[in-house]
Amino acid sequence: MITVQQAEQLILDNARDYGAEIVLFDEALGRVLVENIKADRDLPAFNRVTMDGIAINYQSLEKGITIFNIKATQAAGDQPIDINNADECIEIMTGAALPESVDTVIRYEDIEIKDGTATILIDKIKQGQNLHLKGADKKQGDLLLTPGQLITPAIISLVASVGETELRVKRLPRVVVISSGDELVDVQTTPSPYQIRKSNSYMLQALMIQQGLKADIRHIPDDPEIIKQQLQICIQNYDVLLLTGGISMGKFDYIPQALKDLKVNQVFHKVQQRPGKPFWFGKHDNGAVVFAFPGNPIATFMCTQRYFIPWLNTSLGLAPKQPVYAILATDFSFQPQLTYYLQVKLTFNERGQLSATPVEGNGSGDFANLADTDAFMELPLEKNEFKKGEVYKVWIFNQI
Length: 400
Known about the structure:
The protein has about 400 residues and is an alpha/beta fold. It folds into four domains: about 5-20 and about 170-315, 3-Layer(aba) Sandwich (Molybdenum Cofactor Biosythetic Enzyme, Chain A), CATH 3.40.980; about 20-40 and about 145-170, Molybdopterin biosynthesis moea protein, domain 2 (Alpha-Beta Complex); about 50-130, Beta Complex (Molybdopterin biosynthesis moeA protein, domain 3), CATH 2.170.190.11; about 325-395, Beta-clip. The protein is about 20% helix and about 30% strand. The protein has eight helices and 28 strands. The strands form eight sheets. Strands 7-4-6-5-9-8 form a six-stranded mixed beta sheet, with no helix packed on it. The chain has a six-stranded mixed beta sheet with strand order 16-13-17-21-20-18, with helices on both faces. Strands 22-25-24-26-28 form a five-stranded mixed beta barrel. A hairpin with a 5-residue loop joins strand 24 (about 340-350) and strand 25. Helix 5 packs across helix 6. The chain is elongated. The two termini are about 35 Å apart. About 35% of the residues are buried.
């Protein structure tokens, strides 16, 4: 049985690049960029007005002129209108291109407009104020984005502003979620007193959606031949198999043997952790990877957060996320020599520190308890007693 750290490294060692594809820019949110994006023109492309008001030539103020005749009104997108005389101004709107004959904008709040004239009401005016100058952000040809960046709403705005209608992004792996067990029935079915509804599959599918993946769902009964047939089909048609259930030491846990028969190379089976000790991971020669999680909901959920998502991010070329740590809010003890993933509720204390309060449930089958927590706190196997005020890594799965 291997440690959590060994399991993590073995999984990351089996990360894989799935290539690239072209997508429309407005459908690229959450994808990973694999090309350079450059400015097609200066940003901003002109001297842009940043306040509604009037535009004047600053030299007029130096000559003592404080009352200006409004020659015209210019909106954003209009062709610039120049003044001809020192005592003229342009009434101008935010976003408009500044005419060459003026160089300073005075906002409406600092002027009085009456009978076609604008009177300046303040003394302190700075030449060039209320302007965003051409090329101040980037010059034409400057590099804006580089490969490996996660495409966010801000990046969507940026690529739209430079006319990039298509983006080259990392291709996503094809994922299938597979549940097993004759005790599982459809969500719409009323279970007998000895059955349960299929919930893990939908939880995993929802987690995939959060990661920008589409996942198909399959269910296989506790029949060795059907298990092998269905797994073979999935290995041939998907890049990632996420299995839940059927991998422990029970009489009807046929999946490890079926994977072996199908030439899926076992990388490890069992990790020194709770929940999720029976976790199985392997890889087929065709490149398909198999994450086989225990059937207990908390174990499936935790293993997906702790192992699959970091593997996915590595496969997509994203930089490793900075670890997050929290202060344990109360004493806690755990006796087995296993890394323990404690469910916690996270809050910020008055000093801005992240604090984790244990929310103890009734084991890895208590999925109802999961809805009241924000993260798993990773408690090292080298200790059994954990004291209030000690700091440990947390794996956050709910926004706080």
